[in-house]
């Protein structure tokens, strides 16, 4: 097979931004070169088996400071990868795999059939990432997607991270064990904690202080098993040279605080979402209370003793929670105390904060400035969390000198609509880097849930080293070729149509309300106006996939994609039936209501058949993974209830219903 060299202008790229953050410069994995090299080589072997012996990995920690790799062909036909660390080596491998071997590795699977002789690189290719960090995950991903993952699934995900260049991953598994240890040591009881921790599928929101106890009590075996899992996760991340981000104490405490420490100055926060006070209205410890420092210090010390540390901690004290006062002096004070509580436990601590709340009108420039400048320069990293739809770093003057990461949020609740803001993702990161006095130090991917729209994540990850916007036609054609292993005009046509329609949301419209067929029926929905594209483009793309189905039938990623495009097309058709039905309902035209209702029911049956044909769309796997965490039948019931509740009612009485709805076999019909 003739190698197809799609990129001809790769040269050594120099960093666009010069940094003035000495603390960040020194952050490097302590794993030795040989450990990182072996971790990268093992990863390559997991991906391509025996053919991994065709690659030689060499780590040179002296090159940098940004991650970089150099690829070259050896006389014996092997390809040599020299890289600054394990992640850079994996990135370098993936670059060659995609652009010279037509390979791809995404959540749905891989195209890993290599040419029998590796394509020769006539001249070496050197690529340097443009920023220091590539961040990955949202605190919600841990519940919406990975709540029930075992080590095998985590291992695959860490491989995915390394291939896509992630060096700053959120590592939030297993924190309840540390919190439990800390609270028990301070006089809280097991029962106090049962009311405090969330259930297995709802930990993300209990950790943020939005809810408490809902979905619990959290089984002890869960807590212990997650601790063991976290050890494996951290070891692998560190072996690859990543810098895992661990949690810190953010101020949320069990309700029993008023019994254990009667003098503690706590505020009971308002109820969150539509939750009532049984499961919401959590307690926040006042920043100035000396106990805040005690908890903050103890938590980090106990966590470090158990898991070690890379000195970067996430704490989202104000996530979706309005501070007690908008006075900048108060906010600055709060920021200072949160940070001091961290440094009390780890003098080198760096506070990584999700900037999600900065989208709320409460946070105006004086409030944001007060918070972010309360911490020494370079000791806080802000995730500009949804930069592709609503970047706020400009509004806040590049965070007044604090470093930030340009993040693509892209997905809410792990819903499945085909969606993307391709132009913004193509141009946004370089805009961020070139902003006057930019403090951008990285790019990030912060979806609430994954397993959807893989193309967007493949595209986004390359922003690590792409200094300029890409030619989208060319990029999508190479994407399709990598995905299925060869070139196919029909499928190219289809992807081109998707690129300029569903993947080109440019007016702020997003995916969320469109999955109405998996939502509670309501005559109030007016979803048709939410479409940001012409559905005919989607249907034509669907047709293109069908045209290609003979030629690409051997590709499992093609099976996944054709099911996905069919699924989304059926969803749009269902929406049309629904809109007509509501119109008829308003006109009191019973016959038309019935006709459209019947069409919808039939369509749901068809959709279910379609979804049952592919293992990536099965409800059963989500439930089986949940039940696998149980040790007895009552825990099995609890796990399954959590799994089912999250994707449907989301709360005891449908408090956040349908937010994480799924179009899975077993959900859209029995
Ligand atoms: C308790 O905290 C609030 C702010 O949350 C503060 O106004 C008040 O003065 C504090 N009370 C004491 C006794 O420190
Ligand atoms: C909150 O909702 C739960 C579940 O429906 C119910 O059992 C409980 O009584 C409610 N609590 C309050 C204070 O209304
Ligand atoms: C996306 O839409 C915008 C606005 O309609 C248009 O200018 C742009 O060319 C489109 N991009 C693609 C890739 O189709
Ligand atoms: C699929 O094939 C049909 C029949 O040849 C053709 O009319 C149609 O344009 C093709 N669709 C796409 C998207 O290429």
TrEMBL record:
Residues 134-466 form the Alpha-N-acetylglucosaminidase tim-barrel domain. GO terms for molecular function: alpha-N-acetylglucosaminidase activity. The keyword Glycoprotein applies. Keywords: Glycoprotein, Glycosidase, Hydrolase, Signal. Its EC number is 3.2.1.50. GO terms for biological process: system development. Residues 39-119 form the Alpha-N-acetylglucosaminidase N-terminal domain. It catalyses: Hydrolysis of terminal non-reducing N-acetyl-D-glucosamine residues in N-acetyl-alpha-D-glucosaminides. Residues 475-669 form the Alpha-N-acetylglucosaminidase C-terminal domain. It comes from the Eukaryota. Belongs to the glycosyl hydrolase 89 family. This is Alpha-N-acetylglucosaminidase. The lineage of its organism: Eukaryota, Metazoa, Spiralia, Lophotrochozoa, Mollusca.
């Amino acid at each position: 097979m003739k190698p197809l060299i799609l990129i001809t202008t790769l040269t050594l790229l120099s960093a666009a931004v010069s940094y003035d953050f000495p603390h960040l410069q020194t952050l490097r994995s302590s794993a030795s070169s040989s450990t990182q090299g072996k971790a990268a080589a093992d990863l390559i072997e997991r991906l391509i088996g025996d053919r991994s012996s065709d690659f030689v990995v060499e780590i040179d920690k002296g090159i940098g400071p940004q991650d970089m790799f150099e690829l070259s062909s050896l006389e014996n036909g092997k390809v040599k990868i020299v890289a600054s660390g394990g992640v850079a080596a994996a990135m370098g491998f993936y670059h060659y795999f995609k652009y010279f071997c037509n390979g791809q590795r995404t959540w749905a699977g891989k195209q890993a059939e290599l040419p029998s002789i590796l394509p020769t690189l006539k001249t070496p290719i050197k690529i340097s990432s443009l920023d220091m960090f590539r961040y990955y995950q949202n605190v919600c991903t841990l519940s919406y997607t990975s709540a029930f993952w075992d080590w095998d699934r985590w291992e695959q995900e860490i491989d995915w991270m390394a291939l896509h260049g992630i060096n700053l991953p959120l590592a939030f598994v297993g924190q309840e064990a540390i919190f439990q240890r800390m609270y028990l040591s301070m006089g809280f009881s097991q029962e106090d904690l049962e009311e405090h921790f969330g259930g297995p599928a709802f930990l993300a929101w209990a950790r943020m202080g939005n809810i408490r106890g809902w979905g619990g009590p959290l089984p002890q075996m869960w807590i212990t098993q997650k601790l063991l899992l976290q050890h494996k996760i951290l070891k692998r991340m560190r072996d690859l040279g990543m810098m895992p981000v661990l949690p810190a104490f953010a101020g949320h405490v069990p309700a029993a605080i008023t019994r254990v420490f009667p003098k503690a100055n706590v505020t009971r926060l308002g109820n969150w979402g539509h939750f009532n006070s049984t499961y919401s209205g959590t307690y926040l410890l006042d920043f100035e209370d000396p106990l805040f420092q005690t908890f903050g210090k103890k938590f980090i010390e106990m966590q470090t003793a158990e898991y070690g540390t890379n000195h970067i901690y996430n704490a989202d004290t104000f996530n979706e929670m309005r501070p007690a006062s908008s006075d900048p002096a108060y906010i600055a004070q709060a920021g200072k105390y949160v940070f001091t509580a961290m440094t009390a436990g780890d003098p080198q601590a760096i506070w990584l904060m999700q900037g999600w709340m900065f989208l709320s009108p409460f946070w105006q420039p004086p409030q944001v400035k007060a918070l972010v400048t309360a911490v020494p320069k370079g000791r806080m990293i802000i995730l500009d969390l949804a930069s592709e739809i609503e970047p706020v770093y400009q509004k806040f003057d590049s965070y007044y000198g604090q470093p930030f990461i340009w993040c693509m949020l892209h997905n809410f609740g792990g819903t499945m609509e085909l969606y993307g803001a391709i132009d913004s993702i193509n141009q946004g990161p370089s805009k961020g880097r070139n902003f006057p006095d930019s403090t951008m130090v990285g790019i990030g991917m912060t979806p609430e849930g994954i397993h959807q729209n893989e193309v967007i994540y493949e595209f986004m990850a390359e922003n690590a080293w792409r200094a300029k916007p890409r030619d989208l036609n060319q990029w999508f054609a190479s994407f399709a070729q990598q995905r299925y292993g060869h070139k196919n005009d029909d499928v190219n046509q289809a992807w081109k149509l998707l690129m300029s329609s569903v993947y080109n949301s440019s007016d702020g419209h997003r995916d969320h309300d469109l999955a109405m067929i998996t939502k509670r029926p309501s005559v109030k929905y007016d979803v048709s106006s939410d479409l940001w594209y012409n559905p005919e483009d989607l249907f034509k793309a669907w047709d293109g996939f069908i045209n290609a189905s003979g030629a690409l039938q051997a590709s499992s990623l093609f099976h996944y994609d054709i099911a996905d495009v069919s699924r989304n097309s059926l969803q749009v058709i269902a929406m049309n039936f629904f809109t007509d039905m509501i119109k008829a309902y308003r006109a009191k035209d019973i016959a038309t209501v019935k006709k459209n209702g019947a069409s919808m029911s039939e369509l749901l049956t068809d959709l279910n058949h379609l979804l049952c044909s592919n293992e990536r769309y099965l409800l059963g796997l989500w439930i089986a993974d949940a039940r696998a965490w149980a040790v007895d039948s009552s825990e099995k019931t609890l796990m399954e209830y959590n799994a089912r509740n999250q994707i449907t009612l989301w709360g005891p009485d449908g408090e956040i219903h349908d937010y994480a709805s799924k179009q899975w076999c077993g959900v859209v019909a029995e």
